[in-house]
Amino acid sequence: MDNDRVPNRLLHESSPYLKQHAYNPVDWYAWGPEALERARREDRPILLSIGYSTCHLCHVMAHECFENPQIAKIMNERFVNIKVDREERPDLDEVYMNAVQLLTGRGGWPLTVFLTPELKPFYGGTYFPPEDRGGLPGFTWLLTALSDAYQGKKTDINVAAESLSQKINIIGEIREASQEPTLEALEAAYQKMIQDFDDIHGGFGSAPKFPPSLDLDFLERYYYRTGDQACRDKIALTLTRMARGGLYDQLRGGFHRYTVDRVWLLPHFEKMLYDNALLARRYLEAFKITGDLWFAQIGRETLDYVLAEMTAPDGGFYAAQDADSEGEEGKFFVWTPAEVKQAVGPEYAPLVMAAYGVTPDGNFEHGTSVLHQPLCRAELARQFSVSEEELDDILAHCRRQMLDLRETRVRPHRDDKIITAWNGLMISAMAYGAQVLGDKRYRCAASKSANFILDKLLQEENLKRIWAAGRARQPGFLDDYACLVAGLLDLFETDFNPDWLLPAILLAGLMDERFYDAERKYFFYNAHDNEQLITRPRNFFDQALPSGNSMAVHNLIRLYRLTENLTYQEQAGDVLSRFQGAIADNPRALAYLLSAQESYLAPTLALTLVGDAADETITQMLGVIYQRYLPHRRLVLKSPHNCTALAGLVAAVKEYEALEGKPTAFVCHGFTCLAPVHTAAELEAHLDNLPRP
Q1: Strand pairing of 46-51 and 80-85?
Q2: Cα–Cα distance measured from residue 680 to residue 303, given in angstroms and rounded to the nearest whole number
Q3: Residue 388: domain span
Q4: In this structure, are strands 28-30 and 271-272 parallel, antiparallel, or unpaired?
Q5: Domain CATH for 28
Q6: 265, 370 contact by CB (below 8 A)
Q7: Is the pLDDT of residue 463 over 90?
Q8: Phi/psi zone of residue 377: left (φ > 0), alpha (ψ -120 to 50 degrees), beta?
């Protein structure tokens, strides 16, 4: 079909999202000097459209508006039209999302913003239909009205745009505060946070419901410190309901983006790499906290999904999978009773339909059903008069058959960009999976991705954000540096190769040089030498991903514990102090910074093993450590293969030697060191008797 149409400039871009619009009749530009200069030269307003390749409503607006020749004609005659992939340019997205939220009180994608040639916004919104619908103005009318207003009331528009730009700069700031971080602040934050907790279905708030990965991280740390059983129950309830609901892909594994309801049933079907990285780790941590093997299974299935469907041959991890296939959201994932019978046969179909909530009426569109688990394992086994072990075998067999049938369907689009920040999160998740589950595949995947990023995207001490169409693009932002450092530190605690620690220290130094404001005591989102926008973005608040500042503070604490370089700890304390007012105002928006504050205030658990990594006793000792939830640990293995390199990187490591020629474990908690031990059982006893931090 594309052969009958004339492509626009976006055909030559590397972004999958921009390429999706390459055959629109719109005269699209990518963001850059050519488009911006034309707007200034011709004094034309800019129509800025921001989205991403797996965004359902972005597809809808593209089909309804950008593929419409009449609408495209108005756009081409009256505007300079710029299309931006928000995953490539999150700095632009942050600035202009703030503008739309100020104008309308809400945000989202597609993001549609009208700018003066000086790049100052004067009107905006999200999705617009081609004609008036549902209380929204039609795009055709809106384009004409805004163009006429710009030509006829330019002074008024410039005044309004200047005022809005000033407000954007203010909204990016946080309330001044310089209090010391305290445990009392953590307690107050917890009490305020749980006021919004859903005690029936887990998670926070009502509909729509997003997986609260970062809130759960804080709750896990809070439970570790306090032993509060109610907090533990909130963690377990949330993770259980999410994994039994439609949010979770019951056949392949992995999590969708969010659900439109309160009960985790009906998802928006796109799958994002970052969600699955964060959630895989949450489930593995919950397994360590509760001992429930089912949580470990969900973590494993999530990592296996990423290995199967989201891993590039060269080692990077892809960005996302779309919600749509064949023009319909969720079509790839939903089932009818007839399809279940076709997959598993009439004997097992009744059990499978009961297990996964497939009914003749369905719970989704056109009588289809989103798979979920309405009954617990024991209830289902009783209903069909089988043992729970027999039930597990039957369902495992039937899931494979259903997955085989699903694989014959038209697959959703996959966004094959490799994004540094998101890869950093998945490197962490894979490394953690290797530790907890003892599966070398995850360690290999983490190592391969890290090597790919360091080889392809770290160029002469400049980290790039995107790898797409065979080339690195776009200078990295704060979260790219911070998430990659975190991934490298997790890899180091998995295989103890100093080659991961060296670039982590280098990147932390570059973050300080390029992003940190020593006067304001926080990190900016873009580097001082990146493209300058109408305001310099500041990424303070957690969204689906941890904020760059939160991730940076975690890294600083971890680097201090490894190197004992006090500068890291002091900088972490400065940032935490700066944010105490914001934490008090809105703790859920800074949940991952709260986790960092837990670590900052906790005594370090320094674990040092000395011996050959191949020695069975060392393997057993690592297993003891990896099976315990120890969020404040500093773990090092000094072996004959890494001792020379480690001596210059990890403080005091040269002081540790194997005693009596045997593998030895040294445990120090805060300012107290316990007697060195030589067996996994002795190490286990030490760890089991640690006081709460």
Answers
A1: parallel
A2: 28
A3: 333-408
A4: unpaired
A5: 3.40.30.10
A6: yes
A7: yes
A8: alpha
Task: Name the E strands within 353-493.
Answer: 414-415, 418-419, 458-459, 462-468, 471-475
- State what percent of residues in the chain have pLDDT above 70: 99
Cβ neighbors of 437 (< 8 A, separation 6 or more) are: 284, 296, 299, 300
Give the sign of the dihedral formed by CA 251, CA 255, CA 261, CA 263: positive
**Token code pair at residue 140:** 């055709």
CA 294/CA 236 separation, integer angstroms: 11
Q: Could you tell me if residue 402 is inside a domain?
A: yes
The answer, yes or no, to whether residue 527 has pLDDT greater than 80, is: yes
User: How many Cβ atoms are within 10 Å of 112's Cβ, its own excluded?
Assistant: 22
What φ, ψ does residue 68 adopt, rounded to 5°? -85, 115
Q: Are strands 605-610 and 516-517 parallel, antiparallel or unpaired?
A: unpaired
Q: How confident is the model at residue 570 (pLDDT cuts 50, 70, 90)?
A: very high
The last residue of one of the domains, among 136, 153, 171, is 171
Q: Is 280 part of any domain? A: no
Task: Supply the pLDDT for residue 536.
Answer: 93
Q: What pLDDT, in 10s, does the model give residues 344-398?
A: 999 999 999 999 999 999 999 999 999 999 999 999 999 999 999 999 999 999 9
Neighbours of 103 (CB within 10 A): 18
Rounded to an integer, what distance in angstroms lies between the CA atom of residue 53 and that of residue 420?
Answer: 17
Tokens coding 248: 């979770």
Q: What is the rounded CA–CA span in Å between residue 565 and residue 559? A: 8
Coil, strand or helix at 107: coil
- Structure tokens belonging to residue 85: 């992939």
Per the domain annotation, does 475 fall within a domain? no
Q: What is the three-class DSSP state of 575?
A: helix
Q: Which tokens hold the place of 325?
A: 């296939």
Q: How many domains does the chain have?
A: 3
Residues 290-331 pLDDT 10s: 999 999 999 999 999 999 999 999 999 999 999 999 989 999
Q: Quick count: other Cβ atoms within 10 Å of Cβ 431?
A: 29
187 within some domain: no
Among candidate residues 137, 171, 205, the one where a domain is terminated: 171
